């Protein structure tokens, strides 16, 4: 049976509640997992662990075939038409292609182990890599399975299992710390968690997603061409994304430095990404994206630009205080939560998030490009992936981990500016100067108060708690200042059929 628009909206709103609640719990659990993992492993072991996990985005660079993006694009369409068998066949084909490609690539890596492994200082970790290949297979297959479930609005299951996955790892890592075990046990725990989650997801898929339909399950020739074009396009796009990702830097870092340096860079990158995931835009993007696309085609350039500026302003409202927090309390956070491991790299953490703040307009500008159907520009922007490789090789050799930060940060900035240039008429920064100057001035003044707090507070735990509380108060106060309120948000909120989003926005940005 086909789903009409009202059914889609109802399912989307219902799923949104689960996403907000369960994702919040998952983020909290992920923080605990990260703390325990850093405490459980030595700096070198933590570097090897992250080097192994860097293999996953490397596979996307070599041969992703655009499978995830293809399922994200077409599975919801088939479900809405009631073509469940077609959707199931597409999922099975994608799973088989991914499994076979991973077997071939990882098999070749093992076959040429004695040539490749020494380049990345993994020579003595062959058995660890063999065990980790099982994690890779399950991780990659799970990604496709979750795409199908979320396409059928089964977020309550995927988000709940994401939370359970984090809890399993947290309990396992706590056991590793208590028993003073090593990297092998950590990888075994990850593998066990992946096995449990994948089997459970497969059972849910079999029971909750319809597989049969009255319509023909045959994919027509023209439809096959459509799927192939889309997947090949995103195969190229995924390659660029993988090369621009910070985890690719790990392979260059270890060639010039040590696994411990990889651990330090990965630690800073992981903390930065974990912080970024809890920011409001990442929670509500699933609500904002369909609203933006459904309304954007009927709006003139001026209103599209208002949407763009509202998203940009809201993004920077929450990036700025995090940046201040890391600058003021970065060392205290590392000391209290991570036993001081990688303490000397706290400024690397700050610089990574500084670049993330500079590049915080990436989602809004990409949405405008997609609205204008400029997928070609998004693909061409991946030319900066080549720049990232070149810059990594030059800068890491001379500046170490700092070189990786500078290379990746500037590559992302170049990519974003490239996209913005071609959509600048619909995504202007005109009139936003006052906002950015006021926001900067506000947090500079606020930082003065934080310096006073640091001078009167004794004890790192007390200082960290007090600093966190003051930053939260500062965020709330800035949202109440009329000069900082993104009034353009009201235009978007009027058309978003999500009471929770509008309630939160209305409270946070009073009189917006």
Name a few traits of the molecule:
single chain; 512 residues; mainly alpha; 23 helices; 81% helix; disordered N terminus
Summarize the topology.
Layout: H1 5-40, H2 43-53, H3 55-63, H4 67-81, H5 84-111, H6 113-116, H7 126-151, H8 155-179, H9 183-208, H10 221-244, H11 249-256, H12 259-277, H13 280-296, H14 301-338, H15 346-358, H16 362-371, H17 375-380, H18 384-399, H19 401-423, H20 433-456, H21 460-480, H22 489-493, H23 499-508
Helix pairs in contact: 1-8, 1-12, 2-12, 3-10, 4-5, 4-7, 4-10, 5-7, 7-9, 8-9, 10-18, 11-12, 11-18, 12-15, 13-14, 14-15, 14-16, 14-20, 14-21, 15-19, 16-19, 18-19, 20-21
Report on this model:
The protein has 512 residues and is an all-alpha fold. It has 23 helices and no strands. The chain has helices at residues 5-40, 43-53, 55-63, 67-81, 84-111, 113-116, 126-151, 155-179, 183-208, 221-244, 249-256, 259-277, 280-296, 301-338, 346-358, 362-371, 375-380, 384-399, 401-423, 433-456, 460-480, 489-493, 499-508. Helix 4 crosses helix 10 (221-244). The longest helix is centred in the middle third of the chain and has 38 residues, at 301-338. The two termini are 41 Å apart. Residues 1-5 have low confidence and may be disordered.
Radius of gyration, in Å, reads: 23 Å
Estimated structural class: mainly alpha
Detail the poorly predicted runs. Answer: 1-5
Rounded mean pLDDT score:
81
Fraction of residues in H or I helices: over 70%
**Beta-strand segment tally:** 0
> How many helices does DSSP assign?
23
Strand content range: under 5%
Molecular shape: globular
N-to-C CA distance: 41 Å
Major β-sheet annotation: none
Oligomer: single chain
Written as H for each helix and E for each strand, in order along the chain, the element string is HHHHHHHHHHHHHHHHHHHHHHH
């Amino acid at each position: 049976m086909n789903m009409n628009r009202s059914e889609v909206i109802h399912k989307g709103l219902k799923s949104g509640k689960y996403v907000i609640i369960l994702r919040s719990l998952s983020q909290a659990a992920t923080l605990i997992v990260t703390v325990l993992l850093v405490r459980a492993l030595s700096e070198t072991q933590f570097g090897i662990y992250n080097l192994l996990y860097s293999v996953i985005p490397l596979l996307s660079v070599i041969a992703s075939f655009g499978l995830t993006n293809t399922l994200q694009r077409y599975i919801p369409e088939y479900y809405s038409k009631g073509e469940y068998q077609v959707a199931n066949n597409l999922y099975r084909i994608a799973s088989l292609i991914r499994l076979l490609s991973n077997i071939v690539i990882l098999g070749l890596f093992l076959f040429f182990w004695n040539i490749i492994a020494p380049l990345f200082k993994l020579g003595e970790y062959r058995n660890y890599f063999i065990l980790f290949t099982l994690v890779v297979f399950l991780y990659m297959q799970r990604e496709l399975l979750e795409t199908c479930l979320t396409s059928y609005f089964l977020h309550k299951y995927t988000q709940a299992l994401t939370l359970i996955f984090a809890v399993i790892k947290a309990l396992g890592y706590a056991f590793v710390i208590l028993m003073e075990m090593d990297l092998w046990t950590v990888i075994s725990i990850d593998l066990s968690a992946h096995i449990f989650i994948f089997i459970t997801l497969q059972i849910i898929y079999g029971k909750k997603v319809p597989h049969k339909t009255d319509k023909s399950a045959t994919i027509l020739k023209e439809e096959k061409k459509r799927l192939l074009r889309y997947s090949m396009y995103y195969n190229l796009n995924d390659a660029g994304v993988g090369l621009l990702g910070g985890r690719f830097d790990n392979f260059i870092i270890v060639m010039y430095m040590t696994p411990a340096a990889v651990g330090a860079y990965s630690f800073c990158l992981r903390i930065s990404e974990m912080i970024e995931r809890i920011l409001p835009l990442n929670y509500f993007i699933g609500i904002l994206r369909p609203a933006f696309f459904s309304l954007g085609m009927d709006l003139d350039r001026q209103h599209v630009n208002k949407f763009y500026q509202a998203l940009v302003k809201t993004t920077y409202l929450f990036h700025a205080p995090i940046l201040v927090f890391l600058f003021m309390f970065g060392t205290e956070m590392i000391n209290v939560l991570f036993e001081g491991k990688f303490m000397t790299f706290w400024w690397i953490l700050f610089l990574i998030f500084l670049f993330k703040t500079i590049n915080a307009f990436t989602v809004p500008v990409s949405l405008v490009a997609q609205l204008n159907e400029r997928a070609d520009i998004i693909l061409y922007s991946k030319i900066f992936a080549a720049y990232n490789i070149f810059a990594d090789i030059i800068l890491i050799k001379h500046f170490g981990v700092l070189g990786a930060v500078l290379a990746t940060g500037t590559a992302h900035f170049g990519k974003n500016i490239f996209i913005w240039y071609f959509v600048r008429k619909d995504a202007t920064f005109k009139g936003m100067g006052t906002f950015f100057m006021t926001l900067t001035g506000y947090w500079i003044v606020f930082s003065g108060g934080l310096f006073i707090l640091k001078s009167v507070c004794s004890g790192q735990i007390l200082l960290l708690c007090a600093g966190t509380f003051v930053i939260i108060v500062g965020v709330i106060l800035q949202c109440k200042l009329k000069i900082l309120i993104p009034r353009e948000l009201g235009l978007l909120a009027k058309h978003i059929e999500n009471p929770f989003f509008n309630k939160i926005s209305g409270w946070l940005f009073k009189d917006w």
